[in-house]
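Table 4 source record.
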Amino acid sequence: MNLTFFIGNGFDIRNGLPTRYSDFYKEINNESGNMIYEDIESNKENWSDFELGLGKLTSSKKANNDIEGFIEAYYKVSEDLSEYIQKCENMISIIDSVKLNDFFLNDITKVFRNLKPAEKDKIQILIDRETRINVNFVDFNYTHLLDKCIGEKHNLKKDENDYHLEENIHIHGTVDSFPIVGVDNSNQINKAWLGYHQIRNLMKPELIKNIGYGTYDKTKRIIEKSDVIYIFGSSLGSTDKTWWVQILKWLRANSERVLIIDQYGFDEENKINAVRYVSEKEVIKDNFVRYDFKTENVNGIYNQIFVTNNKQLFSFSKYIAKEK
């Protein structure tokens, strides 16, 4: 079986790193009159998602009167953000890398523990076909925390299954290798600006391709060969729409495939109010399925999506010291 994790910022946050955009905003020093920083300071609610806020700013009157100023402001903010993420990276101090690696591998074997019996049965059918479970990672984070957790031990045999950790793809780069910040597509920026190379390259999927590391095509191949995809620590925001659409296409191609959304804030333990429990699950599924370009057979897609909130998963604070 091929199991693929899509790892979002919630992974770093769960392990104590201050990697929210709101954490970065606290570090802003706008002595130079940067137009992006000025807009953040005056309108923080529009910048809860930095990348969406960036796209919206391209349609503002102020930015349209000074496109070159916007581009220079973006360059400066990107550099400042990279410096801030490096500071977060420097906070990571592994107390015991061997134990961290073992703990992480053991967590991989428990990712289905919170699923309901009928959902576990569907996963078990996939596992029973082949005892080897190949595990890939698509990492949206710029830090190397996940790499440190994966470590050097990549194999574990448990409950008659052989787990093999394969590849971790930093789809948006890393703090020390082309960190990518931007929007998903041309609908999220001012289309009148598309004549500028710098603006076209704000679209992350195109920039990923143009950098030349092959991570875009590699990620597509990993999705296509997956049997189960597990999304952890992601807000499922529209600035990563390309990947959500790819996953929905993957689901549609085979009714036996399963997508698991580990949603922070979902009350997994609520067994009192059945209507609320099921309705919250449906809202989370709605939030993801809205990216689908088709409308037929929506019920089929819904039946392939499981929602959980595994509060104990990927919590390694006992093995990680945060240095200030």
